[in-house]
Amino acid sequence: MSSLTPPDSSPSPFRPKSDTAFFFGLGSLGGFYLFLILALILALVIVPRWGKSDETKLLLMAPSLEEAFSHLEVASRKANGTNLAQEVEDALKEARELADLKPEGQSKASLVKQTATEARALANIELSELAKKAETEKINIGREIDQAKNSLLNAVAFDRPSDYAAVFNDPRIRASAKLSFVSCTISALLSLWVAVPIGYTMSRFQFRGKNFIDTILDVPIVLPPLVIGLGLLILFNNISFGTMDVVYFDRDGDQYIVQENRTIERMIQQVGASIGFQMRITNGAAGVVLAQFMVACAFAVRTMRNTFDQISPRQEEVAMTLGSSRGEAFWSIVLPQGYRGLLAAGTLAWARSLGEFGPILIFCGINAHRTEVMSSSVYLQFSIGEIEKAAVVSLLMIALAFVVLLLVRNLGKSDAMANR
């Protein structure tokens, strides 16, 4: 007979607790933030107006044209018996013709274009002159004239392409996009050029003051971008290294010399002038690259250091025992293994440069076709009330950032799988 005791078949009193509340908390908190991000992107997609049909444009123009006609009617009654009575009556007649415009043997597209052209001319030329004359003659119809002008320009606003087309056809925005691509690429390459040696040094060597230097390298990450721009502006334009003679020319072509502070910016301009080039950092494209580099390089340095930390130094040590120098071991062993980290650092620096605004605003200003980048275009379009155009440029930046971040994620996964 076996001496083994049979297992107890009675049900165990232990019951695992439900994780429903735990997962509900995780899902609700994380899902709330995810919802906010998606809602933000969706809002940017919804705001831009898509192209409308010509029939819809005519229907939308009609109320504004009627408003302009009614305002001019009031102005005509007030101006009755004055020197401007006939001119106001003529403007009223033109507004009536616009409001009663009917398609007679012409397409709706040409009718929309004709209505917008005539309404724009009436508002910007005739009514503007009428308002000046009314102010000179001290006739109290200025308010009605302004209201009529606004109504006419509101009608004109409906004769426009979709905001997507308006953005991509705007030469100023296209120039800012081109400058963004060029400056971000140069900034990313410069960041890699600096980040690789710094990241390798901080990863492989121990020396006095390493923690202090490591802290300084992270300062641009936590520092407000506006402070970086202000620091660059003071460094290049306010710190003096003595005085220098600056040559100016007056309107008559006469030359005169003025002694001014010898700043870094003036010295760069002087060097450029001596070789026949107009060189400038502040308020120039080179300043845009420098402002982007100051922030983006910190992220590249951190990425490259983490990359080198994940590569074992044993292979370098073996190569050096076999006669290789430290440099030969780096170029032949370390760098080939860290190429994915190199690409990740470059793409991350490029994406960070794309979003820079504060340092560029302070250090370079916003000058069309010279220092205006896409982030500056968003600010400018919003400041003049073109929220739809600002939303379109923002969507383009989000799409670029999404592609870059997706590339970084894939490179990171490949790196993790390669190290297993």
Keywords:
single chain; two-stranded antiparallel sheet; 17 helices; 71% helix; flat
Describe this structure in words.
With 420 residues, the protein is mostly helical. It is 71% helix and 3% strand. The chain contains 17 helices and two strands. The protein has helices at 20-46, 54-79, 85-99, 108-137, 142-157, 163-168, 171-204, 210-222, 225-237, 264-274, 285-309, 314-321, 326-337, 339-354, 358-363, 374-383, 387-418; strands spanning 243-249, 255-261. Strands 1-2 form a two-stranded antiparallel sheet. The two termini are 53 Å apart.
Quick overview of this protein structure:
This protein has 420 residues and is mainly α.
Number of helix segments?
17
Number of strands: 2
Strand order of the largest sheet: 1-2
Radius of gyration: 33 Å
Catalogue the unreliable spans: none
Order of helices and strands: HHHHHHHHHEEHHHHHHHH
- Please state roughly what percent of the residues sit in beta strands, choosing from under 5%, 5-15%, 15-25%, 25-35%, 35-45% or over 45%: under 5%
Cα-to-Cα separation, first versus last residue: 53 Å
Q: What's the shape?
A: flat
Derived from helix and strand composition plus strand pairing, the structural class reads mainly alpha
Q: How is the main sheet built?
A: 2 strands, antiparallel
Average pLDDT works out at 82
Helix content class:
over 70%
Write the layout of secondary structure elements.
Blueprint: H1 20-46, H2 54-79, H3 85-99, H4 108-137, H5 142-157, H6 163-168, H7 171-204, H8 210-222, H9 225-237, E1 243-249, E2 255-261, H10 264-274, H11 285-309, H12 314-321, H13 326-337, H14 339-354, H15 358-363, H16 374-383, H17 387-418
Helix pairs in contact: 2-3, 2-4, 2-5, 3-4, 4-5, 7-11, 7-14, 8-11, 11-14, 12-13, 14-17, 16-17
